[in-house]
Each structure stands twice: as structure tokens, then as C-alpha cells.
TrEMBL record:
This is 8-oxo-dGTP diphosphatase. GO terms for molecular function: 8-oxo-7,8-dihydrodeoxyguanosine triphosphate pyrophosphatase activity; 8-oxo-7,8-dihydroguanosine triphosphate pyrophosphatase activity; 8-oxo-dGDP phosphatase activity; 8-oxo-GDP phosphatase activity; metal ion binding. Its EC number is 3.6.1.55. Pfam families: NUDIX. Belongs to the Nudix hydrolase family. PROSITE patterns: NUDIX, NUDIX_BOX. It catalyses: 8-oxo-dGTP + H2O = 8-oxo-dGMP + diphosphate + H(+); 8-oxo-GTP + H2O = 8-oxo-GMP + diphosphate + H(+). Keywords: DNA damage, DNA repair, DNA replication, Hydrolase, Magnesium, Metal-binding, Mutator protein.
Length: 137
């Protein structure tokens, strides 16, 4: 493994009722079958927000109109050292589609398993903001 850090844009879509969208990693990817918030790698020269919008369009067919930066988490997996840039969006259009063959699910209290290890610590924070838009920066 090289010493480089991979920047990843991650989106937490929050419905008015507080439900959030989780996707399941498709077969053939590291941690296949694990659940995560959707997103993907930031390409060279791309902003994190642009990467987020591109990934949501490519993977789920959703158009993100606006998103707020939430938090950043670094996590070292066996296959990669990632820096996750989490954004929260309550402003998008479209219904999610499985464009890469992945499963996805709207969750209130998150009940799907297994979750990607980097996602687990965020769930407690997420509980605090799901129903309180004022809790965002």
C-alpha cells in the first residue's frame, strides 16, 4: 500500500422525516456487502462538492442541489488510507436508482449490517442532527 491518502466525498441525504440513505457496496469492491453512505473518490482537480454531485449522479441518478460540509474522518483500511469528507444534503431531486447494481435503503435508526468501520462512529452524531436542521454548521 502506498502512503498516499485517498480523498473521498461522502453524502448523507436526509429526508424531512429524518431518514438517511445508505448503500451497500457492490460485489468485487473491497468490503463488498458492507453498508455505507454513498459517495466516491475525489478526482484530481475536482472539489469535494463536485465529486459528491458527480458520484450521486453516476451511482444513484440523483441531482444534489446543495450540501453542507459536516465532518471529516480519516480511516486506515487494509487496502487504503482514506480521508472521508462528509456532507449533509436535504436538497436534491430524483429518486435513487441502482445504477451500479448496488442495494440501497432509507433508514431511520440505522439497522442495516454490517456497516463500514469508518461509518460507525458517525451514527451517534447523526442521531443528534437527523431531526434538528439547526444542529448543522
Amino acid at each position: 500500500m502506498s502512503g498516499s491518502i485517498v480523498d473521498v466525498a461522502v453524502g448523507v441525504l436526509v429526508k424531512p422525516n429524518g431518514d438517511v440513505l445508505l448503500g451497500q457496496r457492490p460485489a468485487g469492491k473491497p468490503y463488498e456487502g458492507y453498508w455505507e453512505f454513498p459517495g466516491g473518490k475525489v478526482d484530481p482537480g475536482e472539489t469535494v462538492l463536485d465529486a459528491l454531485k458527480r458520484e450521486f449522479l453516476e451511482e444513484l441518478g440523483l441531482v444534489i442541489h446543495s450540501a453542507q460540509e459536516w465532518c471529516g474522518v480519516e480511516h486506515v483500511y487494509p487496502h487504503a488510507h482514506v480521508r472521508l469528507h462528509f456532507y449533509i444534503s436535504r436538497d436534491w431531486s430524483g429518486e435513487p436508482q441502482s445504477l451500479e447494481g448496488q442495494a440501497f435503503a432509507w433508514q431511520g435508526a440505522v439497522g442495516v449490517e454490517p456497516l463500514l468501520p469508518a461509518t460507525i462512529p458517525l451514527l451517534q452524531w447523526l442521531e443528534q442532527i437527523r431531526h434538528d436542521p439547526q444542529a448543522l454548521p
